[in-house]
Amino acid sequence: MTRPTQLAARSAEITLADVFRRSARIFADRVALAAEDTRLTYRELDENANRLANALVGLGLRRGDRIAVLSEPHPGYATTYVAAAKVGITVVALNIRLHPDELRGCVDGASPRLLFTSGAYAETAIQVRGGTSVLDQVICFDGRRDGCDDVAELTAAGAAADPDTEVGAEDIHNILYTSGTTGPPKGAMISQRAAAARALRIAQYFELGPDDGFVGWLPLYHCGGDESLYATLMTGGKFYPVPRAEPERLFRAIADERLTWTLLLPGVITDFLHHPKREDYDLSSLRFAFGYANMMPQVVRELTKATGITYYDAFGQTETSYLVAYGKIPPGTEPSLRKTPTPLLDVRVVDDELREVPVGTPGECVVRGPGVMSGYLDDPQATEEVFRGGWLHTGDVLVRNEDGTLTFTDRKKYLIKTGGENVYPAEVEQVIAAHEAVQEVCVFGVPDERWGETVKAAVVLLPGRTATEAEIANWCRDHLAGYKRPRYVQFMRAEEMPRSATGKLLRHELAALPVTDEQRVEGARP
Asked: Contact, 147 vs 100, CB < 8 A?
């Protein structure tokens, strides 16, 4: 069997279509997709995807045309990705959490010909089509609906033979919209080359093979979702999509299918860990989980101890892949903020003139490599800005350590300026998160009459633990300079913390909450 590492030399030329064809040939009789009502081998997935691809060509779509998908993780979504890759059609991956008006904006901007949807979002899809003139048809993965055609009827008209279409490495495979946590979402264009390179990097780093299986609850319109799908299909593993990250649904999938890896993000990780029925299921096949939990060291420590799995703490973004650098946290080890850059990506830490900064000095993380996006959809100004100097500027502030690892400092846009001093929220978050009673924390700036801006912390306590605003302030006093300490502390329940679909805390929404005298920490310097 060809190992993923043997493909590395061709990573700049290989297409995602190549990846899927290779896997169909090598792993033909292994299970590729499994779900509560679906089970497809690699041969069957390939034939289904071929039928859909040929049907799309029969409808008049050609290489470079676009289709859109509005769906939770679904076997039909995965099949559509494979089909589109084979004929060079771009998938516009729509965020199911957006309002129909916002979805119409994405559709009008990308101009897809068709909109594929699951039964759960068929009504929304019909609303979207009603407000735009670019869509020819809405097609449902789960059978015919009023206003939606049945994908099974469409694929029945397509041939099972591999489509005769030449596809290039620079063809845009999909358009993924950024999370919009620091501004309006932008459509990141991911080429076939980039998608294949991202999958290869994940397969190498996690040492994936045919006996691995992924629990895919993260939506496939996010880089963490689609890259995990591609890495699984690249290595002959099993992809098991679930519509939502409900703990018992995850437990059943892992136990019944002997799955080996998944994402555990903030919010999901605590529900998974503390669910009362977790020990009722045999989860011994699970060997690792990944995500980002810099501000939750107590939770990660408890997770690895309770489950015996390794946790990989991520750093990445839509434009670059979710796997730029990772910290490996095996059971029984203390979570570390240091992360190791992954293969097939050149990572530098630089100043505003693109000069590498000395070890230990904060600078912006810039990257380049075959997995980086091609640019933003119909936004040449933003594309030119993010690629200035020939490197993709992530907007993240990092420190390079003497051993070559990287430590995340913060997003440049999150910088708090208080009385002429700069405060990186992540630095304050790391201190507060180390408190034994703290489950999660988010730090942000709020207006201050005297200093212009000051520091506030939203804190979630671990179940059964207590702490006061003064205790949090005293803890910070022992570890931080005066101007970095929070002037306000607001205790919140985990379910009250606003999050994106990937579990990221929505800092701007927290910053918009009222600042009250009850949250004031006496004696703290603004």
From this structure: no
